[in-house]
Amino acid sequence: MKITVDIDCTPEEARSFLGLPDVKPLQEAFMATMNDKISSGLSSEDMEKLFDLWMTPGLKQAGQNMEMFQNMFWNAAKSK
Q1: What is the pLDDT of residue 70?
Q2: Contact between residue 30 and residue 54 where contact means Cβ atoms under 8 Å apart
């Protein structure tokens, strides 16, 4: 027996259903800050320092963990 379920929802509805946070306000604030810094003439070294300040080592590792989780998910999906 095979059961197929189609879900028609917006990305916002999917994030809410899965319990994921809404990061849009954070992204907008980050982009506004970056735009202000870039327009004020930041050097490339300053941009790297700013990025490292925003992306702590734990967050960088979280990105790697997310990639590993996605690979695990896709490998499991492929095996069926």
Answers
A1: 75
A2: yes
Secondary structure letter of residue 55 according to DSSP: S
Helices 44-54 and 24-39, interaxial angle, to 10°?
160
3-class SS of residue 78: helix
- Interatomic CA distance for residues 47 and 39, integer angstroms: 12
Please name the residues in contact with 17: beta carbons below 8 A apart, sequence gap of 6 or more.
Answer: 9
Q: For residues 5 and 21, what is the distance between their CA atoms, to the nearest angstrom?
A: 25
**CA–CA distances in Å: residue 24 to residues 2, 9, 11, 12, 13:** 37, 18, 12, 10, 14
pTM of the model: 0.39
The stretches in the chain having pLDDT less than 50 are none
Amino acid at 2: K
